[in-house]
Automatic annotation (TrEMBL):
Protein name: DctP family TRAP transporter solute-binding subunit
Main location: periplasm
PANTHER family named among the record's database cross-references: C4-DICARBOXYLATE-BINDING PROTEIN DCTB (PTHR33376:SF7), PTHR33376
Listed InterPro entries: DctP_fam (IPR018389), TAT_signal (IPR006311), TRAP_DctP (IPR004682), TRAP_DctP_sf (IPR038404)
Hydrolase keyword on record: no
BP terms from Gene Ontology: C4-dicarboxylate transport; transmembrane transport
């Protein structure tokens, strides 16, 4: 549902949306605006650039992909609304940001410790369960094209975070996922939903004490400069669904769509081949920078985190759907 404020902010976008179909095809090139919130030098940023290059190649220049990184066009919540209105045609939001759209099942990806590693995750994103989740977007006027990896999250703050008790009372910035909210609450933290573009400043000024993200996001936003401690906990996964405005996508000429599908397939392979290395390198770079003290959980400490967060699965079953959780767990254990 659009608020009065967001409607006002998107007034120009609405006008554009109303005339979207006709001018897009009357012009020489079909313009596809691809908006995202992270830096160009991240797994998502690089994959978007690769898609741009391949899409223009495979459509023989019929399409012009305009990539807007770093929340230049829209912040988290606004970009979803802009996509539905047709003001942008393509996004790759984190899987943790689909709740406000009414597609709560995606929050299954946020359950703590649900994926042991990228292999386990891929059994979901590259299988039937992943396809079924993307199909749920159609009712919202959105088509899901692919899953792009980022990585496993670390926790950061200005105090050491070794045991679940260390989170007590800390204000932690989170994405909009209710699952993330639930596990932060379970740790005794005070979760605060905030757009990604505002996190650095909020950490710097003490509006929040800490946050979580894969190393690639932490490093490229320079969050390590304003966080004294970080724990490599790998307690949860952050990745993306690449999504398009369905009406726009379905209205594209067949040959153009074939070219774009091929480009998306290759950009996806690329994204998923670089994500782990990018995150490993970002972590190493932050360790070398020395502004944050990094700590890796021992097996025992990790077991204590898992035990503390275990009830979250059951508590969130009603919201996500017990059958979705079961389907993901079954896929992972295959
Ligand atoms: C965040 O808001 O922390 C992430 O979703 C940003 C992103 O797109 O990786």
């Amino acid at each position: 549902m659009l608020t009065r404020r967001s409607l006002a902010a998107l007034a120009g976008a609405t006008a554009l949306a109303l005339t979207m179909a006709a001018p897009a095809f009357a012009q020489d090139k079909i313009i596809i605006k691809f908006s995202h919130v992270v830096a160009p030098d991240t797994p998502k940023g690089k994959a978007a650039a690769r898609f741009e290059e391949l899409a223009e190649l495979y459509t023989n220049g019929a399409v012009d992909i305009e990539v807007y990184p770093n929340s230049q066009l829209y912040k988290d919540k606004e970009e979803m609304e802009a996509l539905q209105l047709g003001a942008v045609q393509m996004l790759a939001p984190s899987l943790a940001k689909f709740g406000p759209l009414g597609v709560r099942e995606f929050e299954v990806f946020d359950l703590p410790f649900i994926f042991a590693d990228y292999d386990a995750l891929r059994k979901v994103t590259q299988g039937e369960v992943g396809a079924g989740l993307l199909a749920k977007l159609e009712d919202k006027g959105i088509s899901g094209l692919a899953y792009w990896d980022n990585g496993f999250k670390i926790m950061s703050a200005n105090s050491p975070l070794k045991s679940p008790d260390d989170f007590l009372g800390l204000k932690m910035r989170i994405q909009s996922s209710k699952v993330i909210e639930a596990y932060m609450n379970k740790l005794g933290a005070v979760p605060q939903v905030m757009a990604f573009s505002e996190v650095y400043q909020a950490l710097q000024t003490g509006v929040v004490d800490g946050t979580e993200n894969p190393p690639s996001n932490m490093y490229t936003q320079k969050m390590n400069e304003v966080q004294d401690h970080a724990t490599v906990s790998n307690h949860g996964y952050l990745g993306y669904a690449v999504i398009v405005n369905k009406q726009f996508w379905d209205g594209l000429p067949e040959d153009v769509r074939v070219g774009l599908d091929k480009a998306m397939l290759e950009a996806t392979e690329y994204a998923n081949s670089i994500a782990k290395d990018d995150n490993d390198q970002a972590l190493a770079a932050m360790e070398a920078a020395g502004t944050t003290e990094f700590y890796t959980l021992t097996d025992e400490e990790r077991a204590a985190w898992m035990e503390a967060l275990a009830p979250v699965n059951e508590e969130m079953a009603e919201r996500i759907g017990a059958e979705t959780i079961a389907a993901v767990e079954a896929a992972v254990s295959q």
